[in-house]
Specification:
The protein is an all-alpha fold. The chain has a domain of 72 residues. The chain contains 5 helices and no strands.
Length: 106
């Protein structure tokens, strides 16, 4: 009899301990300032201008430019248009020129 009560109490205690009292993960958006985003864009573009090569930074560039759109949609639209042109380039001199043009639009 004692063993059944002990086992039941142990199961109850373990189930409460495992379930915890947390509310789970919270999907919280952390705002990033536009100047920080523009700084990331500038840094990536300066690397393209320096090397004439489109590196892995090209994948995050569009995302960063979309972040600019929250505060300055006209600037973001211009940069997106120029980004599309940049993505189609293969010659280092052309990449450098387009990156420099995009920097001037920031």
């Amino acid at each position: 009899m004692f063993m059944k009560k002990f086992c039941a109490l142990a199961v109850l205690t373990m189930s409460l301990a495992v379930s915890g009292c947390g509310g789970g993960l919270v999907d919280e958006k952390i705002p990033v300032s536009t100047s920080a985003i523009e700084g990331n864009v500038r840094k990536t573009l300066e690397e393209f201008e320096k090397t004439g090569q489109l590196g892995s930074g090209i994948t995050g560039l569009e995302s960063d430019i979309n972040g600019i759109q929250l505060t300055d949609s006209a600037k973001a639209e211009t940069l997106i248009k120029l980004l599309r042109e940049l993505q189609g380039l293969t010659k280092p001199a052309d990449i450098k020129a387009k990156a420099k043009e995009m920097i001037s639009k920031l």
